[in-house]
Task: structure prediction
Amino acid sequence: MNDIVLKTIDLTKHYGGVQALEGANFEMRKGEHIAIMGDNGAGKSTFVRQITGVEQRTRGTVMFDGQEVNFSGPLEAREAGIEAVFQTLALADHLDVPDNLFLGREITKFNWLGPFRLLDYKAMREETIEGLNKTGVKIPNIRNTIERMSGGQRQCVAIARAATFKSKLTIMDEPTAALGVQETAQVENIIRTLKADGDPLILVSHNMRQVMDLVDRIIVFRRGRMVADLRTEETNGEDVVSYITGAKTGAQFEGAA
Amino acid sequence: MTDTSHGTGGLTFDKTKRSWPNELNILFALFVIIAIFEILGQVLPYMNDQSFLFDTKDRFDSIFNEARLKIIILQVAIIGIIALGVTQVIITAGIDLSSGPLVAATAMIAMSFGQTELVNGFANPKALFGTWAMDLPVLIPVVVGLTFGAFIGAINGTFIAYMRIPPFIATLGMFLICRGIALWWSGGNPISFPTEGFKWIGSGMMPVVWFLSLAVVFHLIMRYTVYGKHTYAIGSNEEAARMSGINVNRHKVTVYVIASMLAAFAGVILAAKSETAQAGMGEFYELFAIAMAVIGGISLQGGRGSIIGTVLGAMVLGVIRSGFTYIKLDGSYQLMAMGSIIIAAILFDQYRQRNRA
Result:
């Protein structure tokens, strides 16, 4: 029980009459990397939004780090240790890389000055460089503002932000959907670094090669329901596709969809 | 470029790669405007070879016409103090229209606690309160004025941050309320004859001293403190700021409080400088303060700009004002020229932003 990071019981979300997510029972262990796959509208993003507190679930329980949680918003989820990297990046365009990495948790001096306490730019720059080195993120000049960066570099900053602050669980929603080949490779390298460090990850992705390369387990959603829970080494791309399209349904999920 | 960003180049920390600061563009524009007036002074037939900025008649020890330099900065100093606050508001993607009337209301309120009991041996003819409010130490009118400003700013900020009233509307309402307070305070009568201590605040070059010291303080605050960083972050991406755990609403209230306290202090200085307070004071000050910020490169979309830019923007307005007086052109042309320059500044800013990506 202790090594379970995240567990959902009967997690359900209805939008009016639409059953976007129905009775999802999900379990994730420490250090595990899990991919969530499925067609458009299958319920992947809905699932992520319930866990990260972006939306409020209709029914069900979410257990995080051994405790039942009810996040009223994404900020609470982040404070509890769930760091999400969404497709729409939450970065401040006019600030540079260290500013964004440390936004809301700045390293400061003279803390008795309250809101006017001084920023320790040097320490933040050094930790930024250290953090980027550790995660393998390459950005030519960290003093550049985000608005001057390519989509891939922005994605890397957002991921580095999640990765440098030892979160208990990282969630990435299609992190490479808008990226070129080299940028995708860089993001995948960051994911491998997380794996090597034993940091758990939920990866929402359409990219079969990426998923087969990177994760331990694949969860397939179809029409709002979980239909398969597969170990990557025991399955192959064709097999996963047949679950996604509905040609097959996992034994333990019979009757679900 | 592709090499360093994705390949083996790795991380470089290159100070020389920092971008060309916009403040240098404004400084350049300032010099161009000065040069134009200097040339006009030589070319226009009725000018008798006067110089705009230089001491050609050997009246001063330096090579500059010190009298003109002093006037240029003195006439923008008080509005400049307001501009320091409105700069911070605009950086959060807000706006503050209430500062002009707030100057008048604060001038009235502060002056009524800064009066002398006796004028030439007779009782103060403009006395608003009884003798208890006369000949008070200078700190009292100042503190009363700043407290009033903080109160107005807190109301502005609360409506904008917590009740989601657009800043334009909230501060437009406060614009009228403050003008009303200024009229109501003394029933429309001017309040005059301040104590020597109160006069000192606005005497001589004191407004410039206040303006420049406050500019330095707020430059440091915006650049080197958490308050400054969060102000930029909120204007840049409010949602990201909120997601990062910044208490966005509380921070906005703080920004509006600081802006209104600066406007209130400008009101105190104006009353002290004029040695009288009148309900009609500070007309259009809010607009000139916004103009200084905009000319100084503060983006109305938020997130961009600096205190140095606003100080330079104030200098541009000051130079234009005394430049037009220097070439003996009517005030009407002055207004037209200032208007054109504000629009040009915004056009230039948009051009810069388009060419950035």
The two ends of chain B are 15 Å apart (CA to CA).
